[in-house]
Amino acid sequence: MIEPTRIIAIRHGETTWNVDTRIQGRLDIPLNATGRSQATRMARALQDEPITAVYASDLARAWETAHYLGRARGLPVVPEAGLRERGFGDFEGLTFAEIEARLPDQSQRWRRRDPEFAPAGGESLTVLNQRVVEAAERLAARHPGELIALVGHGGVMDVLYRAAARLHIQAPRTWSLGNAAINRLLWTPEGFTLVGWADTQHLDGDALDDGPFPATGPAPVMAGG
């Protein structure tokens, strides 16, 4: 039998574009002052955890967040392109309001979580889901019996939650995807299991959720962070 791999999954700290509800996607937006503070507090909260490896998206906001954790643990951060945010193509750089005003038909498909919809030059939810799950499974399989950290984005966290909770890609989101929140999963060859989600005690409530619509509303969309 293969021992399960324990996973701590972390969304990057806050950026100015998160505050502005502006789609980041694959654009390299750095952490703001709040995001750096969040990353510092996240690393402090995990300082006694027996983490053996830290993997991160190579986009600046996740990469920087991961390095706070890596330095605290004396571990290198290993880049993993599979943990990048969803590519949003023509949506990138626009606010939610601008997308609705300029591209109303595409905005509707996005809001409905159409699995095959991809903004021009971007990824569909189907492609995102496959990419993230494959990457997380591959990384977890390297570390049976160990605890690893995966640092990524709102879209990545959403995929991991759905995989662990066995939820369809189109299911409305009712869970939080806060900046620098601590999320816990188990992985075995049978798949992911949810252990704990959206622990923000270390942030004193200072974690923006990733989504322009209420978390309990109909089919919320991802903010692309």
Range of strand content: 15-25%
Succession of helices and strands: EHHEHEHHHEHEE
Tally of domains: 1
- How many helical stretches? 7
Radius of gyration: 16 Å
Q: Profile the largest sheet.
A: 6 strands, mixed
Low-pLDDT parts are 212-222
CATH C-level class is Alpha Beta
| Helix/strand structural class | alpha/beta
Distance between the termini: 37 Å
CATH third-level topology = Rossmann fold
Helix content: 25-40%
The main sheet orders its strands as 3-2-4-1-5-6
Q: What is the residue-averaged pLDDT? A: 92
Provide the CATH superfamily.
Answer: Phosphoglycerate mutase-like
CATH architecture: 3-Layer(aba) Sandwich
Shape: globular
Number of strands: 6
Structure description:
The chain is of the alpha/beta class and 225 residues long. The chain has a single domain, classed as Rossmann fold (3-Layer(aba) Sandwich). It has seven helices and six strands, in the order βααβαβαααβαββ. The protein has a six-stranded mixed beta sheet, sandwiched between helices. Helix 2 (33-45) packs parallel to helix 3 (60-73) and helix 4 (96-102) crosses helix 5.
